[in-house]
Amino acid sequence: MKRREFIAATAALLVSPPRLRAQGPPRRIGFLIPYFKQSGRDAWRSGLREKGWIEGKNLLVEYRYYVETPDRVSALAAELVALNPDLVIAVGPQAALALKSATATIPIVFVAVADPVALGLVQSLSHPGSNITGLTTLVPGDFLAKRIEILRELVPGASKIALLVNPNNPLHRLALAEEAPRAARNLGVALLIVEATTPEEIDAAFASAAAQHADAIVDGNDPLTNSQGPRVVALAAKHHLPASYLFRHDAIGGLIVYGPDVPDLFRRAGGYVDKVLKGTKPADLPVEQPTKFELVINMKTAKALGLTVPQSLLARADEVIE
């Protein structure tokens, strides 16, 4: 090779990003999740690619899904741990608690856990303290109260708000013990608790809310209602209940969404994977909070419910669906 060609080739190697992060055999990770929407999956793989990890090439991912069999989440966690992966990803509080119980040595990165401190997953956001860290969905504070306040801007006379919860969700149990009573007291509303642990029970929960003459309903957010999004939206329409949702996918037919940009959390999870696989301990990686929130209003649904959306709310919206 001529000297000029050698120098050019060497320079190209220096400035080009590596195709694959790791040399040698691929690394293996486990992934415990209730279900995976395409937007989240695409963001997850994008976050990995940003750090040089290519699923199926230098990174092997073992997926386990539990939304259809929530009673098997502990068994699925043990299944993943038995594979002895380099780390495991836990999506949602049930998965995070199951994996934390299953291993004290394999690094765990959680995604979409609202309050990991209250759940006992970490000692604090800045100092997780053990083999687990990750990304929350909510910032500390009365987020439920914020959702109710925004909903009442759309339904100013609402005094009875139904709250759809899953009693099997540990974060819902915590919210019912502390946050929900506080929100009701501070906002001067009556919160009607309606529960669902199966798809069929969602129908009964909405019927109960309507029978109690609820003025509106808040989806407390759970893997069950997330996976049954179209059903929840249809039931809100059937019972003529203005409804508030946490995630953008429910804005297709749903009245209003206020919550974190979850695909962005999946993308950012790639950074944790990269750091842990390169040797950083979870205890040394602070828990991160959402940096992007979305307010989406569906004007067609508002019109069907006979609601007038105030200009003050429209001005704050990230997206208005006509």
Q: What is the CA-atom radius of gyration, in angstroms?
A: 22 Å
Largest sheet: 7 strands, mixed
**Residue windows where pLDDT falls under 50 for at least 5 positions:** 1-22
CATH homologous superfamily placement of the largest domain: Response regulator
**CATH secondary-structure class of the largest domain:** Alpha Beta
Query: Overall pLDDT, averaged?
Result: 90
CATH topology of the largest domain: Rossmann fold
**N-to-C terminal Cα separation, in Å?**
63 Å
Number of E-type strands: 12
Number of domains: 2
What does this structure look like?
The protein has 322 residues and is α/β, with parallel strands linked by helices. The protein folds into 2 domains: 14-137 and 262-291, 3-Layer(aba) Sandwich (Rossmann fold); 143-260 and 294-321, Response regulator (Rossmann fold, 3-Layer(aba) Sandwich), CATH 3.40.50.2300. Helix content is 41%, strand content 19%. It has helices at residues 3-15, 38-50, 73-82, 93-102, 143-154, 170-187, 199-211, 223-227, 229-238, 262-277, 299-304, 311-316, and strands at residues 27-33, 59-65, 87-91, 108-111, 132-135, 160-165, 190-195, 216-219, 243-245, 256-260, 293-298, 319-321. The strands form 2 sheets. A 7-stranded mixed sheet has the order 7-6-8-9-10-11-12. A 5-stranded parallel sheet has the order 2-1-3-4-5, sandwiched between helices. Strand 1, helix 2 and strand 2 (59-65) form a beta-alpha-beta unit. The protein is elongated. The termini are far apart.
